Amino acid sequence: VYMYAGQGGLQKFLVVVAVLMIPVMLLGKPLYKKFRKNQEAARRGTMRDDLLGEDDGPEAEEEEGFGEVMITQGIHTIEYVLGSISHTASYLRLWALSLAHAQLSEVLWSMVMRI
């Protein structure tokens, strides 16, 4: 039983969007970082920098490899998806508990009022 017209379609749409966001979360950041790194390398002209021996000094931060970024993003994506599923299950348990409480209260009230 739906609360309003079109609820079934909206629910299906939201589930599809949620499932389609998983690859976006998984691949978004690593591909963006790779794209920015390639853009930066093309802008600077890395061969020229290598030949001239320019050094950023000791404060230059070490760049993460693409594989490391993918692994980190994969861990974060799995953690987020499992957390979302866990929270949903928790809310369903709370909803079931409140329904059971309402039913027990109704039974108790009817027994008390009958006496």
Summary of the model, kept short:
This protein is mainly α and about 120 residues long. It has three helices and no strands.
What does this structure look like?
Helix content is 82%, strand content 0%. The protein has 3 helices and no strands. The longest helix is centred in the C-terminal third of the chain and has 49 residues. It starts with 6 loop residues before the first helix and ends with a helix.
Strand count, sense and barrel status of the largest sheet are: none
User: What is the CA-atom radius of gyration, in angstroms?
Assistant: 27 Å
What's the helix count?
A: 3
How does the overall form come out from the CA principal axes? elongated
Q: How many β-strands, per DSSP? A: 0
Question: What labels would you give this structure?
Answer:
115 residues; mainly alpha
Record the SSE blueprint.
Blueprint: H1 7-44, H2 46-52, H3 66-114
